[in-house]
Amino acid sequence: MAIFENIHTRDEAFYKEIYFHHYFKSKIYRFIDILMGISLLIGLVGLLFEIRPDYTAYGCFVFIILFRVIMYRRIVKVSMARQKEISASGDILYTITVTEDSITHKSSLGSEYSIGFSSIKKAYQTKNYVILQSGARQWYILKKEGFVAGNCDDFIKFLETKGYKMGR
Asked: Does domain 4-10+91-161 have CATH number 1.10.10?
């Protein structure tokens, strides 16, 4: 018996938001940003005390930022191209059905798969989506405004009762 059901399509705004979170707000990138910030501060202190700076570190800093921006823009473009290639007839509808024990993902193209909650390792939110991630890094994405059974606030409470901390 479905407790929650969510229906959404995926457009460019969807891919931008999801991948922006992945490339710029995930924990590993926050850690890298902190390290780069410390490196930048050390370099600035070195300039103040006329210590010859290591320009290689600054080059790496710029390279990492440019690399992330390029990868982000590329994955959004590739995702949109894939979407258009497989959906020649129009938008693909994605339906996520949540029961007490499992999540089922269906697309209007006919694919369907289910996973038990025990396989979900991480849950977090972006501005417009709730993302569940399995141990194999498969994402189950629900649009906050896309609930046709239940609502987003109740879904987040449901996840918290299952022990997931809803990070941003």
From this structure: no
